[in-house]
Design brief:
single chain, mainly alpha, Cytochrome Bc1 Complex, Chain D, domain 2, two-stranded antiparallel ribbon, globular, heme binding, heme, Cyt_c-like_dom
Length: 294
């Protein structure tokens, strides 16, 4: 009986501890106080972060890509995630405060206090500057509204238990930059673009069994989360293009061998083509500083 009582007590203590540790952790109160967004600057952040690439409706082209109605599906080993409506409507993020927006983007915490799944790359956006977040929201608020309802994810047990994501965040939310050291201003800008805004690591870095990035093999490629094909290694071990060739690829979609970009990378090229060429050059300089990983 004593053994049973002891085991039960430990189980209760463990459950309470897990509940506390898995609680959402929003930004500190007042983190966004005094910030005023500017939509023109936010447009560049929007394209660098690839917001439309995931949140436009399936099959959208042209101006329709700026209607962030959601609905695209992203299959993975954990189930299928569906991008939500983030347009400035009541069905999207209309009425959200900047603080609520910042908590969603940087901490993966919804306005109602629940966890978002890390298919939304807040683990990368956690490195964003708060002013960029304010500018991004100012731009999204100028876009067309859509009343399309956000569709639910298709996840099985235990991945449908959102509370468990608090423990995932404790393990895998970043606390620093992956590539540290004495970087040039251009390389530093490239790091900000690659590790934060453009979230390159989310696709190009292999993951462990819990879905966390294996940062020891940063940008070394791996299986496509959809189960179809692989994502290439873009460290200097495999990506041997010159910086000029990387810039040309990011802005035109053509490789040095005159192959053309395909898949989701085509959206990345579309986005970089809308930015000053200096942004692609910064990413190219950063990629040359990444340790070569076979």
């Amino acid at each position: 009986m004593r053994i049973f009582t002891g085991v039960l007590g430990l189980a209760v203590v463990g459950a309470i501890g897990a509940w506390v540790l898995s609680a959402p952790r929003p930004l500190p109160d007042g983190a966004t106080a005094g910030l005023v967004g500017e939509a023109t600057r936010g447009e560049a952040v929007f394209h660098a972060a690839g917001c439309a690439s995931c949140h436009m409706a399936p099959g959208s082209t042209g101006a329709a890509q700026l209607v962030l109605a959601g609905g695209q599906s992203f299959p993975s080993a954990f189930g299928t995630f569906v991008a939500p409506n983030i347009s400035p409507s009541e069905a999207g993020i209309g009425g959200w405060t900047l603080a609520q927006f910042a908590n969603a983007v940087q901490r993966g915490v919804s306005p109602d206090g629940s966890h978002y799944y890390p298919a939304f790359p807040y683990a990368a956006y956690a490195r964003m500057e708060l002013q960029d977040l304010a500018d991004l929201k100012a731009f999204i608020d100028t876009l067309p509204a859509s009343d399309a309802p956000s569709l639910p994810h298709d996840l099985g047990f235990p991945f449908n238990i959102r509370r468990s994501l608090g423990l995932w965040k404790l393990l895998f939310l970043p606390k620093d930059w992956v590539i540290a050291g004495d970087l040039t201003p251009q390389e530093t800008r490239g790091r900000y673009l690659a590790e934060a805004l453009a979230h390159c690591g989310e696709c190009h870095t292999p993951r462990n069994l819990l879905g966390g990035l294996d940062t020891g093999r940063w940008l070394a490629g791996g299986p496509n989360p959809s189960g179809q094909g692989t994502i290439p290694n873009i460290t200097p071990a495999k990506l041997t293009w010159s910086e000029e060739e990387i810039v040309a690829y990011l802005t035109t979609g053509f490789t040095p061998e005159f192959d053309s970009v395909g898949g989701h990378m085509a959206h990345v090229v579309e986005n970089f083509a809308r930015l000053p060429e200096s942004e692609a050059a910064a990413v190219a300089a950063y990629l040359k500083r990444v340790p070569p990983t076979p």
